[in-house]
Design a protein that fits this description.
Length: 762
């Protein structure tokens, strides 16, 4: 490949790739990809830049007693637009260099199960739904403890320079390698030691991540017949959508989108009615253990069924709700214009013993927010299901970079919802039951004792807030989800319906969050299966064949049993089980991101000298993620403060047991104290394992990168190019040039046209 001229929007292509002269073009001609700047376009982007600049000025510099929430929306949207239009274009032009004349794995390996050329809009929905789990909803809510500015900067700036870069590059490089997982790519690029370390870390971290995501769903749906009914109905709706696109009306994306949207809204409305009936409450009021087993069974089924039948349409369907709710919330914020009374930097920003989460602002703010700005879990999805469904190479920018920007917007909206709540109520909801005693009186005493400026919490404030949303209590409703629901309900009822609809919006948000997170569980399970198949395939090559059904069933069963057992432990024994791993979620997730960026950096360096000068685009976020996560791991391993360090906490509880105490800290019995000793030992041990594996992978990747830069390149591990025989636009909306080519394809005789619009196309 040759480099493009500086200043050109024309991505370099391999002129050696032949095309079938009997078919219309499979790619937009290079000349048509050049941006033609006009004065209206220039004026538009100048206006976007100015609006974004004003918004950031209001947030970062003009600090009065309050700040209007609309500036968060404007700062985020303007930054995303500029980042997508310009920064991602630089990445596409100088690092990715896609060529739509090459067939993607979905086209050349098409099997109707895992490799399926999928319409870009459906795939965007699937990818976004899969990556957007608990992180963008929960992390920003917890990070509000530190004030509004640190979290806002990391979520918005971090995603443009780090999170979206990782997702885009991992997706593209995996697609160029047949859809291989990040662990398998690490093995190819970094050798046996680095690759093995990356694979072990990825598999262990994946089990923890999926189990935690599933637990959040269980807690959100527990004893909630409305949520259980509505979320359950999305499964048959998705099956219908998959069959509709496969056999009834292939390629009719807009048509089935409208049908699916109507059915989804119907399921939500029907859920409220069913829950209010005696029979509905009896059938759909399920305990948490039953829901957990249901999710385990669903995870197995979703991972073994053809991707077009359940996974892709269900994730696409849930995206309607996800993006719709977030856009609706943003519109309500602009309409209501709530004033944020939280300071830019809170009283806890300079310490390490906050009531919501412990640890100093650096590095713990960054690992707490996690998915909203940078997430290693995304690298598993971007090298799992999505690259096997990508129809054309140039679509990777829209899906990889653009999908991550949308998740960041979800995180910003979650942060604003949390900031809009009275500060006293926020801390009463997010402080542990050990601190508030689980009572209104205890919460009032605890929060007022924190010494927060301008906060004077009263019992009536807590009881009134709970009654307004139809809850018995909101005290110590930790985990972020209830706080987001309350904030969303407060903003939405001010915009639509008034106080009478506050309870509706609250429970709607709870169900929305459960649906949001469950989609990451099904995709995560499928990716976990791919990872294990890749790993076993090193020793037993038959397992690497994803079409070999015994291997699919065996690997799926092993991975589901892994995260399912952790989930059951968390549901049945909250003091042990999954709570052992929850504090590891953020750090492990970011360590995985550092591993993914390290692998990507090595790949870019091996591509040659013309790519190496753009290595800083990967090296900068890798350096930052490495410093943050390794520092956080050192805190958790070596901190002498029991509230921060695992081993310090372990020693404190062991000493209490040796002294014969029957209660200590949050534990109210010797059994509970012994569980804390056991749990902190597991936490500390896993922290050591994770950070050691990550440091090993990063160090090897840096060495490989240096060697490749000095040699001017390295081994090319991409699959050999195969000519494409299909066409599809690159972005959400087709350009004029793309529409013209689509017309040529539509005019083909039925036999040739079927090659492009086969059932797999859907």
């Amino acid at each position: 490949m040759s480099a493009s001229p500086v200043g050109s929007d024309r991505p370099p292509v391999d002129d050696a790739i032949p095309t079938d002269p009997s078919l219309p073009p499979v790619a937009v001609p290079a000349d048509e990809l050049r941006t033609r700047w006009t004065w209206p376009k220039i004026a538009l982007w100048v206006a976007i830049g100015l609006l974004g600049g004003v918004a950031w000025t209001m947030l970062a510099l003009v600090r009065g007693e309050t700040v209007n929430a609309i500036w968060f929306v404007f700062a985020a949207v303007c930054t995303y637009l500029i980042g997508y239009r310009f920064y991602s274009k630089v990445i596409e032009r100088y690092i990715v260099r896609p060529d739509d004349r090459r067939a993607t794995p979905a086209e050349r390996k098409q099997d109707g199960k895992d490799y399926v050329p999928t319409d870009r809009r459906v795939l965007y929905g699937h990818h976004f739904a899969a990556i957007a789990g608990a992180g963008p909803l929960v992390g920003p809510v917890l990070a509000a403890q530190m004030g509004y500015l640190p979290g806002t900067i990391w979520i918005i700036v971090g995603v443009v320079l780090a999170g979206a870069v990782q997702d885009y590059l991992v997706l593209f490089f995996s697609m160029r390698r047949g859809g291989r997982t990040i662990g398998q790519m690490a093995r190819q690029e970094l050798g046996r030691i680095g690759g093995t370390a990356a694979i072990i870390a990825s598999l262990l971290i994946m089990l923890i991540i999926v189990a935690i995501l599933a637990l959040v769903v269980v807690n959100a749906l527990g004893e909630s017949p409305w949520g259980v009914f509505s979320v359950s109905m999305t499964i048959p709706i998705a099956l219908f959508m998959g069959c509709y696109l496969r056999w009834i009306r292939p390629g009719r994306i807009t048509e089935i989108s409208l049908i699916g949207f109507v059915l989804l809204i119907g399921a939500i409305i029907a859920g409220g009615w069913v829950a209010s009936t005696e029979w509905g409450a009896a059938i759909f009021t399920l305990d948490r253990t039953t829901i957990a087993w249901g999710i385990i069974i669903y995870g197995f089924v979703a991972a073994v069924l053809p991707v077009w039948l359940l996974l892709a349409p269900r994730d696409y369907l849930s995206t309607f709700m996800k993006i719709g709710v977030i856009v609706m919330l943003a519109g309500a914020i602009i309409l209501v214009r709530p004033e944020i009374e939280v300071p830019a930097f809170s009283e806890f920003a300079g310490g390490e013993l906050g009531p919501v989460f412990t640890g100093p602002i650096f590095p713990f703010l960054f690992v707490t927010i996690a998915c909203g700005a940078l997430s290693g879990f995304h690298a598993l999805i971007a090298s799992g299901t999505t690259p096997k469904l990508l129809e054309k190479e140039r679509q990777s920018r829209f899906i990889g970079y653009g999908g991550m920007l949308m998740e960041s917007f979800v995180a910003i909206m979650a942060l604003v919802a949390a900031l809009s709540i009275d500060r006293g109520i926020y801390f009463a909801m997010n402080s542990s039951a050990a601190a508030t005693l689980g009572t209104v009186e205890g919460a009032v005493a605890f929060v007022n004792g924190l010494g927060l400026a301008g906060v004077n919490l009263t019992p009536d404030m807590l009881t009134s807030a709970a009654a307004a949303v139809g809850e018995e209590t909101i005290v110590s409703r930790t985990g972020g989800a209830p706080t987001l629901a309350l904030g969303l309900a407060n903003i939405m009822q001010a915009a639509l319906g008034g106080p009478a609809l506050a309870a509706f919006w609250y429970h709607f948000a709870i169900m929305f969050e459960a649906l949001f997170i469950l989609t990451a569980v099904d995709a995560g399970t499928r990716v976990a299966r791919f990872m294990l198949q890749d790993s076993l395939g090193t020793f037993l090559p038959r397992f690497r064949d994803v079409s070999w059904r015994p291997g699919v069933w065996i690997c799926t069963a092993i991975m589901v049993a892994g995260w399912g057992s952790i989930l059951i432990l968390g549901v049945t024994d909250p003091l042990g089980g999954i709570n052992t791993f929850f504090p590891l979620f953020g750090i492990a997730n970011q360590l995985l991101a550092a591993i993914a960026l390290a692998v990507v950096m090595a790949i870019v360096a091996k591509r040659g000298r013309s790519y190496a000068k753009w290595l800083w685009i990967v090296a900068v976020p890798l350096a930052f993620a490495s410093v943050v996560t390794i520092t956080a791991s050192m805190y958790k391993i070596f901190s002498p403060v029991p509230a921060v360090g695992y081993w310090a906490n372990n020693a404190a509880f062991r000493a209490a047991l040796d002294d014969g105490l029957t209660e200590f800290g949050t534990a109210t019995s010797r059994e509970a104290m012994e569980a804390v000793v056991r749990n902190t030992a597991v936490q500390g041990t896993l922290s050591i394992i994770f950070v050691t594996l990550a440091i090993l992978v990063i160090a090897i990747a840096v060495g490989v990168t240096i060697v490749a830069v000095r040699r001017g390149g390295g081994e090319n591990t991409e699959d050999p190019p195969v000519p494409s025989r299909r066409f599809a636009p690159a972005g959400f909306l087709a350009t004029k040039a793309e529409r013209e080519i689509e017309k040529e394809w539509e005019a083909l005789p039925g036999r040739d046209r079927a090659d492009r619009t086969s059932p797999a196309h859907s």
